[in-house]
Give the backbone structure.
Amino acid sequence: MATLIDAAEFTSNEVYQIQATDPVEGAASGASFSGTGISNQPHQQLANRTAFLKQRQDVNISNIGVLQTFQALFTGLMAPNGYLRIGVQDINKGLMQYVVQWGLVNWGTPHSEGLYGPYSFPIAFPNACEVVIPVTLTPEKPGSASAGDNVVMVSASYPPNTSQFWVWNNQIAGTNATQGFIYLAIGF
């Protein structure tokens, strides 16, 4: 028994309807419709359309898998101490996750100048912490003689690792001493 060979092509509104006056004609050399015969013409057109749709479905299934894998790279926790993992195609490192973390450290009482820590990130960075940006919770008094001194910074002697960081409080003791800080950390 011979079979029709399909070709993946889609032609809209072009499935031939056999007419009552059409003679029965099967495949043969010299037969109409490129040798397939008029009786096989609608079958061939439907077979071609089915092959076309199957080919598109296979591509879509593959693309959906890629999108689901990429979507899994986006996770996070929206909280006072939270994080966001962002899937990125890095120019140098390829497909990876950037991690942005933030938090609040409230000492509750004023702390004077000195080194404090370690403070833990909400989650450990898988590879490295690139930067931590702390900002003091205590605003400076306008016109203060020590304007610009009320800062906290990541300590150069204790650089951040994948799970912790230390801060240096630059504010001297007194009524305007630092009471804590918020931070933003970026890594991968």
About this structure: The longest strand covers residues 94-111. The helical segments are 41-71. Residues 75-187 form a domain with the Immunoglobulin-like fold (CATH 2.60.40.3940).
